[in-house]
Amino acid sequence: MKDSISKTSDKPTRWLITGGCGFIGTSLIKNLVSEGGHTIRVLDNLSVGTRQDLSRVCTFSEKGKVKSEKSENPSSLLTSNSSLTELIVGDITDYETCLNWCQEIDIIVHLAANTGVGPSVEDPRKDMESNVIGTFNMLEAARNNGVKRFVFASSGAPVGECEPPIHEELAPHPVSPYGASKLAGEGYCSAYYRTFGLETVALRFGNVYGPGSSNKNSVVARFIKQSMNGEALEIYGDGLQTRDFIYIDDLIAAIYNAATLDPLFLAGETFQIATNSETTVCELSKILVNILNAKGVASVEIVHAEQRKGDVLRNYSDTTKAEAKLGWNAETKLETGIRKTVEWFLAGQRENRNRM
């Protein structure tokens, strides 16, 4: 077994974050840069997150795609200057890219994915290629480069329709192609730990929201953007479907613990990362409308559309295992987190108006 990772190590920790230009990736990078003592490499195809998004949280240099080890040596590009991050524009479905840029890395946080039920229903092959082949490529690259820790961003979707709360011992029966692809990722993570000793940790994220989520199309970000554009909030179905909404700062704390704590209780494991709280989409919309009204966004209309294929009716998590083994629990109340998120979106809107 490889040496365990310790927060108290006097050596810079070398991170590779796939999908690092996205909402969760930039939030993690912001925290790592603030803490210091890390070197950071981002691998992103810029299909969702942008260079501008990354520039909001760090200074970075951009490197081209490596064709072979002779053309450029990735290990020489990392710097101990925690204010400088590397951006590699590349795709996880290309194994050569993954293999080359995983050199001289301690921790991989694998966030890059085709996200959401809807896109997976519309194009299940694209979902599979990104989430299954892409994850396999990253695991193989990690194994062949001697990476110590691999944190995989999963979801409650692998479990499928069940009587909540969701916990790690439930037999998975995914409803959507997205759930099936994330289940495959979890399975490969388990196998790569038990066969090859790679310290994998799979985190099943709840519905993540918070400042920085302008590129997301999840329900909180979508509702806020619709209201700011004077559009009605569109609820799929009757709105009685439930979700477990987790604030971004709480999620980042869970990722950090999964990446840095001693592997004894973590390696090869899967954890529910959510709030252990069930909220209907209708309840969420009421909280959001009240906050928007208090912030001067009036006359917010709510409409109902057809229920989406692949959506489960109830979804919230039992986080007992994460509390016991990760030493983690969510701290941000939903109303507090929604208020902070609305304030961030409104501040961005004012800033854009001032530029015009």
3D architecture notes:
This protein has helices spanning 23-35, 51-55, 95-101, 117-122, 124-144, 177-196, 219-228, 248-260, 281-294, 320-326, 334-355, and strands spanning 13-18, 38-44, 59-63, 84-89, 107-110, 149-155, 199-205, 207-209, 233-236, 242-243, 245-247, 269-273, 279-280, 302-305. By secondary structure, it is α/β, with parallel strands linked by helices. The strands form four sheets. An eight-stranded parallel beta sheet has the order 3-4-2-1-5-6-7-12, with helices on both faces. A two-stranded parallel ribbon has the order 8-11. Strand 1, helix 1 (23-35) and strand 2 form a beta-alpha-beta unit.
Please give a handful of descriptors for the protein shown.
alpha/beta; single chain; Rossmann fold; 356 residues; disordered N terminus; 18% strand; globular; two-stranded parallel ribbon
> So, the CATH homologous superfamily of the domain at 13-210 and 245-276 and 317-331?
NAD(P)-binding Rossmann-like Domain
Give the helix proportion (percent range): 25-40%
Distance between the termini: 57 Å
Mean pLDDT: 90
CATH class label of the domain at 13-210 and 245-276 and 317-331: Alpha Beta
From the alpha carbons, calculate the radius of gyration and give it in angstroms.
Answer: 20 Å
**Which geometry do the CA atoms define?**
globular
Helix vs. strand class: alpha/beta
Looking at the structure, the CATH topology of the domain at 13-210 and 245-276 and 317-331 is: Rossmann fold
What is the tally of helical segments? 11
Strand content: 15-25%
Strand ordering within the main sheet: 3-4-2-1-5-6-7-12
The appropriate CATH architecture of the domain at 13-210 and 245-276 and 317-331 is: 3-Layer(aba) Sandwich
**Element string (H = helix, E = strand):** EHEHEEHEHHEHEEHEEEHEEHEHH
Unreliable residue stretches:
1-8, 65-72, 75-83
- Largest β sheet strand count, sense and barrel closure: 8 strands, parallel
Number of strands: 14
